[in-house]
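User: Can you help me understand a structure? I only have the sequence.
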Amino acid sequence: MKAVTVLTLAGALAAAFAAPFAAAQTYPAKPVRMIVPLSPGGAVDVAGRLVARSLSERWGTQVVVENRPGAGGTVGTAVAAKAAPDGYTLLMGSSTLMSVNPHLYPKLAYDTVRDFTPVALVASTPLLLVVHPSVPVRNLKQFVAFAKGQPGALNYSSSGNGSTGHLAGEMFRRATGTNIVHVPHSGSAPALVSLMSGETQMMLPTISAALSQARSGRLRALAVTSQRRVDAAPELPTVAEAGVPGFDVEIWSGVFMPANVPRELVTRVHGDLMDQLKQPALRKAFVEQGASVVTRDTPEQFASYVKTEWAKWGRAVKESGAQID
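Assistant: Let's start by predicting it. Here is the structure, written out as tokens:
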């Protein structure tokens, strides 16, 4: 009797361990939804559609993009957090959605660290530190010296309070000991117009938003904010290279699942996505958006990176005083 009980228990345990593996082998057995918590057309939406299309081709099963905008992306992110942990709901997250919003919005219905499983860091995009051509500097060291020489006289524009450009500007002010005044606008386009008109003197937009203006002479690019120089503008130094050690600000996008998704499914989606990101056509599509594809991180490394970013942007939000009710 005891031998039968032991054998029965062993069989049950074997079946329990085999079930997730079998699910991963047959996954996906039905369409998968990709929640994009923002409106169509933006950088996160583009990244989500590129990933969804590529995975659809690989799996032979449709990955359907579902835009769920509202409240700065918090509405759609909440929907993804509450989805069943069965692998059939993916979230296209970003540095803003996962690392900035938790500090800007004090009453979220989810916790971006506790309620999600990071699957894969997909791409990153640096900001471009640009100044109006009338500012009498040619490099970042000269600009820092110029700003320090007239505290409070220079302005920097952003797309709004709590935006990446605002927070990056505050990081730059603190890292350089400069007093450059923040001037928020109602979007990136009016902020760029403000800079090009000379109303403001500095801005930290995405490289895709401002590089063409810099190359036309309407703006002057001084540095990129990433750790490494970028292929789109290899002649530009990083902010760290140009005299501000340790400065590193990038906008990133990545795939998440709800918490408690079986490990085997996370591994399956991560592996398939990494393989797809190595395809020249998909890499080119991201590069055309000003992004660099990332294929070096495991899910564990991505999870660690998300926690580090959460803390970094949290400090920036706190120091800036920005908050959205």
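Now, to help you interpret it: The chain is about 45% helix and 20% strand. The longest helix spans residues 2-26. Let me know which part you'd like to focus on.
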